[in-house]
Amino acid sequence: QVQFVESGGGLVQAGGSLRLSCAASLSMFSNSAMGWYRQAPDKQRELVATITRGGSTNYADSVKGRFTISRDNAKNTVYLQMNSLKPEDTALYYCNAVMITAATIPLRSWGQGTQVTVSS
Q1: Nearest partner of 104 among 66, 65, 69, judged by Cα
Q2: How far is Cα 52 from Cα 7, in angstroms, rounded to an integer?
Q3: Which of 113, 95, 101, 7 lies closest to 47 in space, CA to CA?
Q4: Closest among 81, 99, 82, 83 to 34, alpha carbons compared
Q5: Are 19 and 82 in contact (CB under 8 A)?
Q6: CA distance 25 to 115
Q7: How high is the pLDDT of residue 51?
Q8: Closest by alpha carbon to 95, among 1, 2, 6?
Q9: CA-CA-CA-CA torsion sign (2, 116, 43, 51)
Q10: DSSP string computed for the chain
Q11: Consecutive 10-residue runs of the chain (120 residues): their mean pLDDT?
């Protein structure tokens, strides 16, 4: 069974930085597009960033220029570097393998996520 283990969250002041990691027990990880999602209280889960197997990236408008997604195929791990954090970035952050077509579709069960809290 595929598992995603997210880590690196925490409490940070506005303007600060965090680096999230997601370790994936996913066969053929290097052939999989990956995405980071987040879910704030009382809101739907939203897509934050994606990275293709070739390394092409895409970001939600709300995080462009502040967040960077990357991957290390040797470690089956995807990262999310978050800079200039804002209180509205507060959410539970998840990763997943994704299929990118006209829409981006998560493919596997969700992990536990990692909590990011940004204080003003």
Answers
A1: 69
A2: 21
A3: 95
A4: 99
A5: yes
A6: 21
A7: 98
A8: 6
A9: negative
A10: ---EEEE--EEEETT--EEEEEEE--TTGGGSEEEEEEE-TTS--EEEEEE-TT--EEE-TTTTTTEEEEEEGGGTEEEEEE-S--GGG-EEEEEEEEEESSSEEE-S-----EEEEEE-
A11: 93 98 92 97 96 97 98 97 98 97 93 97
Cβ–Cβ under 8 Å, residues 94 and 4: yes
Amino acid making up residue 36: W
Burial of 85 (0-12, 13-18, 19+ CB in 10 A): buried
User: Position 105: which residue type?
Assistant: I
Q: Tokens for 84? A: 């200039």
Structural tokens at position 58:
């895409």
58 bridge partner residues: 50
Residue count of the chain = 120
